[in-house]
Amino acid sequence: MTEVLYMSYDGMTDPLGQSQVIPYLQGLSKLGFHFTLISFEKKERFEKSEKQISALLKHSNIDWVPLTYTKSPPILSTIYDVMRMRSKAFELHQQKKFSIVHCRSYISSLVGLAMKKKFGVKFIFDMRGFYADERVDGGLWKLSNPLYKMVYDFFKGREKQFLSNADYTISLTENGKREIQSWKEIPNQPISIQVIPCCADLEKFSSTQIDTTKLQELRTQLSIHENDFVLSYLGSVGTWYMLDEMLDFFKCLLEQKPNAKFLFITNEPASLVLNKAEEKNISADKFIITTAPHSLVPTYLALSSVSIFFIKPVFSKRASSPTKQGEIMGMGIPYVCNAGVGDVDEIVADTNSGFVVNIFSIADYQNTVKDLLENKLNEEQIRNGATKYYSLEKGVEKYHSVYKALLK
């Protein structure tokens, strides 16, 4: 059995770990790979979910090595965590002699590259987007601050090293792959890149799996009436997600559909949405803001007439694959999104699964509202689009092809 070390700076008790790491490893474990998984866990989430995640991983014969995530002080805490990750990875390699080190994003790739150079282990750079540029585009690293400028330059330098030295790179988007393969400073172009978007478990995200009694109970609980037109938003708000613009769109929808309600399925405080809505003179009774455990997200999504996500169309987002797109499509729900993010608009065009806003303007919102009210999209066709682009099985197959290529 091939020994693989998988490293993630995200926790497995985080929603992201549960949707975007564990399902792939479970699939690959069935194909003859034995995983050791190093992750960094946030204290509260770990205390709450450790037993459940531990049992899940044990069932798939995955050896989990959870380390505690250090939150502060900024930068120094990350350096400390990288040192601990490196020490643990090197120690485990002495015991297990890994054939492949699979690194999720840039932080863990610092250790993965060191392992390739020291031990000759095959190194997969699973980049998950342009990390340093995302931090700047999201306003998290201000380049006017010399410290953040130094950190940005450090990671842009490492990015070139990862791409130049990786035995395989994973990109979330074709758009990101094209961008990287155009970079002249990377030797041996075109480098080996496999495109694997953020896949969804389409067995869970399926309208056929929804318990209709639970759905009806949820309608009653959230005061959603049969004739309400529900626009939904799934996930966190802020950083790259454009709340102002989504509220402006909703305002245009209300002009055509006075019975519309805006359902937010999010862990964010309701005040974040309601304060903005008040600024825009949208009545608070038009909003339903609720949290949902990951297992019930499909049921909450099933309340939607249409869903929406607007993401800042900045450089770093060329390499971004919104997890919510595959999940919404799996449910057969049409959606409104914007152009200029990853492969989003190309997928909409190819699958006829939604409506694309090209310019953030009232005129464009009004035209899109008119379009979505006049053109009912086919649920089965949307679902088929999800299978084509976002099926977990296809994601596992693509990872498997990368692993096989490295072991030849």
Provide structural commentary.
With 408 residues, the chain is an alpha/beta fold. The chain has two domains: 212 residues, Glycogen Phosphorylase B (Rossmann fold); 184 residues, Rossmann fold, CATH 3.40.50.2000. Helices cover 49% and strands 16% of the residues. The strands form two sheets. A seven-stranded parallel sheet has the order 3-2-1-4-5-6-7, sandwiched between helices. Strand 2, helix 3 and strand 3 form a beta-alpha-beta unit. The longest helix is centred in the first third of the chain and has 21 residues. The chain is globular and about 65 Å long. The mean pLDDT is 96.
- Approximate helicity band: 40-55%
- Through-space gap between termini: 15 Å
Order of helices and strands: EHHEHEHEHEHHEHEHEHEHEHEHEHEHHH
Low-confidence stretches: none
Query: What's the total count of β strands?
Result: 13
Q: What value does the Rg take, in angstroms?
A: 22 Å
Question: Structural class of the helices, strands and pairings?
Answer: alpha/beta
CATH hierarchy class name of the largest domain = Alpha Beta
- Which topology of the largest domain does CATH recognise? Rossmann fold
CATH superfamily of the largest domain: Glycogen Phosphorylase B
Tell me the count of domains. 2
* Overall shape: globular
Strand fraction equals 15-25%
Count of helix runs: 17
Q: How are the strands of the biggest sheet laid out side by side?
A: 3-2-1-4-5-6-7
Q: In this structure, how is the largest beta sheet organized?
A: 7 strands, parallel
How would you state the average pLDDT, rounded?
Answer: 96
In CATH, the architecture of the largest domain is: 3-Layer(aba) Sandwich
